[in-house]
Structure prediction request, 399 residues.
Amino acid sequence: MEQWQMEMSGWYPEFQALRHRLHREPERSFQEHGTTQLIRELLTGWGAEVEEHPGLETGLTALIRGAHPGPTVALREDIDALPMGENTGLPFSSCREGLCHACGHDIHTAALLWAAKALCRLRDRLHGSVKLIFQCAEEVGAGAEQMLALGALGPDRPEAVVGFHCDPKLPWDTVGLRYGPSNASFDILTWHITGQGGHGAYPQQCVDPVMVSGYLLTQLQTVISRVNSPTHPAVLTIGEIHGGTAPNIIPDRVTMRGTMRAFDPAIRQQLLSAIRRITEEGCRALGAEGTLIHDVGTPAIHNHPDIADRVARAVEETFGREHLQVIPEPSLGSDDFACWIEACGGRGVQFLVGSHDPQLPNSSLGLHVAENIFVDECLKTAAPVLVRFALNYLSDPRS
Ligand SMILES: [Zn+2]
Ligand SMILES: [Zn+2]
Prediction:
């Protein structure tokens, strides 16, 4: 074990306590003021340069400038919590009602801070700089886009970006790595179906948007089964449908909301335009008016092979090959980490770090589950891998 890694492991209690503090005080997307302030104070204390981005209220970037010239490599984690109650029974459970870190972003934040402290002390070995990105509002799919729009990457685009997400299905001493597509694109869609309301006894005088919505609901699934190529995974889920006030009244309007997931950007556009066509033309065929609103869009994550090799090497050198698991299948879940990869010219990887302890059954329930426990120990896996990746990337180009 190298000197830095030994020194780093001695700081575990400090970052375990920090993780507990973050866990106890969760903040929802775009309201991560306390978390941002804490990160700012810690980084400043260790000598990282916190960068100012006018207009950015939560989330933060900072630079660890190496002693030697060279490229910049970015490490990114997310800091927001979820609007749901916690039911883990942990002594450091959320103290805020209806808010908790059920996606492990407290682990992400603490691990990146731990890595940052170590890298601040390893400046002499850095030929280039490490850019730290503590991203706000991942859970609403909008934080990365906002930070990028406010110039978070600065004039010198990092050569690569790397980060991790906790995975309750993997043991805490294991890193999961997927080459190529790992997470789907994410779109939120809203449909408004407008008809002509009236008395439930006289449908002939009305255009019934409830009936039209039932038709539309089934027709939209043909986008997945008939428009999409079966060799390319895609999902359309309609999770909300609202309309009507009484059993004998035909309402004027029905609203539906849903999400679409895909991997290939061209296919994604093709599916979205088919959804629009079926919405508009399908409703028109039944005498109603259908409008589609495309709310949020996040691209798919495609892990870059060269960067993935470098992450694999960092895991091997830090813990050994047996701690690396190549993930065979992509996930239809999404993460706006994809925006950072796009902004870094495609050279990025989001890897997984197990957060499951085989002795603790409640630690493998899944993300966004009120009872799921993310064990502290996964910090010990995540932080050194981030450090090793950056050290290797910015090692002396002559050696
Ligand atoms: Zn989440
Ligand atoms: Zn998450």
User: Anything to note?
Assistant: DSSP finds ten helices and 16 strands in the chain.
